Amino acid sequence: MAEQDPSVAAWRAYCQSIADAGEMVFAPGAPDDPDVRAEGIRALSRYMAFGLEQCLERADPARPEFVDVQTTIRKFMGDNPDQTYFSAAVRGDRSYRINATMAGAVAVEIGVYAGNFGSDGGRRLVDAVEDTTLRVDADGSYELLLTPDPEPDNPNQLRLDPDSSSVLIRTYFTDLAVRLAHPRPTIEAIPPAGGAPMLTPDQLKRGLELAALHTAGSFGWWVNHKLEKLSGTPINTFPPLVDEGDMHTPQNVRYLSGEWRLAPDEALLVDFDPSGGADYWAWVLLNHWGETVDWRTRTTVINGDRAVRRDDGSVRLVVAHQDPGLPNWMDTAGHPAGSLSLRWFRSSAPLPTAETQVVPFTQLPNS
Predict the structure, then answer these.
(1) The CATH number of 6-190 is which of 3.40.630.190, 1.10.340.30, 2.60.120.1600, 3.40.50.460?
(2) What are φ and ψ of residue 38, in 5° steps?
(3) What 3-state class would DSSP assign to 278?
(4) What is the DSSP string of 193-250?
(5) Environment class of residue 315 by beta-carbon count within 10 Å: exposed (0-12), middle (13-18) or buried (19+)?
(6) pLDDT in tens, the chain (367 residues)
(7) Longest alpha-carbon distance in the chain
(8) Most buried residue, 97, 197, 285, 361, by most Cβ within 10 Å?
C-alpha cells in the first residue's frame, strides 16, 4: 500500500479532530434538547469556519489581512452585536501600517498581543491605545503604525515585542445599521513581502492543526466555562463578573453576568439603574452556546441609546419567549436558557446592581 499523501493525512486528522469536538454538545450539564444540540453543532461549525480563516487563509504575518471576528453569522465567544472585532496576524521583526475608521462609533480600542488565546503561555497585551488619545481625522479615519521602535508619546504608534502575534481592533456602536456598514480596516507590512508562494504540505498541516486547536479549544472553553457558572451563581441572577485572567477582558470594561432559564410561560424582569453613567453600556442576551440570536431580526442587545428609561432614569428589561408589548423586550427566540451580561464600559461610577424576578408571562406588570 502506497504511503498516504501528507496533505490527505493532514485533512483526515483535522476532520477527526472536529468530529471529536462535536461530542462536547453532550457534555455533562448540557441541555437534553435536540434543538439546543442542533444549535450547538451549528455553533461549532462557526468556530470551525473562523478557525480555518484565521489559521489557514489569513495567517501569514508577512502578508496580513484583517479577519472579521464577529459577524451576523459568526458568534465567537459571547458576541456583542454593538461591536466589530477585527484581528490580524503580525510578528515582531516587521512594521505595519493600519488604516481604519471609527465614523459613527462610540469608541475604539486597538491592542497588540503576544501569544494566543488558549495557548500554553496565554495571551499577553503588549501595547494599546483608545480613541481618547488616538489622533483621529474629522471624518473618523485614522492611521496607526505598529513598530518595534515607536516614537515616544506618539499615540498613533504601538510597540511590537519580538513575540508579538496579533493586533485586534474593537469598535463600539449603538446603531446596528451603522455597525453593519462599518468597513474592514486595512493592514500592510513594511516592507511589503510581495506575492504569496504556493502552499506547501507542511504549511497546510500546520494551518489545519492550529485551526482544529482553535476550534476545539474555543468551543470547549465556553462549554467548560458554562458548566463552572452553572455550578456557582444561582440561575436568573447577575452579579459582577470576576475575571481571574482567563477571560482576557479589557481593563476598562466591567460586567454583570449570569445564567437565565425560563419555562415557556415565564418571563424574567431585570431592573437596574445606569444613571451613574458610562461611555457605553449594553445588556446582551446569549443562548446556551454563547451566541446571540439573529440580531438583524430580533432584539438581543439593548444599549444606553436604545433603552427606554423610567422617569427616575432606571431601566427594566423583559426577557421573554414572546413579545410582551412592553419596552426593552429581549427576545429569547425560543431558547430555554442561556447567559445575560451587562457591559459597563469606561466609567468611574460603581458598577450597577441588577434586581431580578421571574413571573408568569400572563402576570407581567405594565411598567
Answers:
(1) 2.60.120.1600
(2) -60, -40
(3) coil
(4) --S--PPPHHHHHHHHHHHHHHHHHHHHHHHHHHHHHHTTSPTT--PBPP--SSS---
(5) buried
(6) 457 899 999 999 999 999 999 999 998 878 889 999 999 999 999 999 999 999 999 999 999 999 999 999 999 989 999 999 999 999 999 999 999 999 999 999 999 999 875 555 567 899 999 999 999 999 999 999 999 999 999 999 999 999 999 999 999 999 999 999 999 999 999 999 999 999 999 999 999 999 999 999 999 988 887 666 666 789 999 999 876 554 455 668 999 999 999 999 999 999 999 999 999 999 999 999 999 999 999 999 999 999 999 999 999 999 999 999 999 999 999 999 999 999 999 999 999 999 999 999 999 998 6
(7) 79
(8) 285
The three three-digit cell numbers of residue 204, written as one number: 497546510
User: Residue ranges of the alpha helices (H) in the chain?
Assistant: 6-21, 34-52, 176-181, 201-230
| CA-based nearest residue to 249, from 261, 260, 257 | 257
DSSP bridge pairs for 117:
none
Neighbours of 38 (CB within 10 A): 11
Q: Which CATH class is domain 253-363?
A: mainly beta
Question: Nearest 5 degrees, angle CA 312-CA 239-CA 228?
Answer: 155
Looking up cell 476532520 gives 15
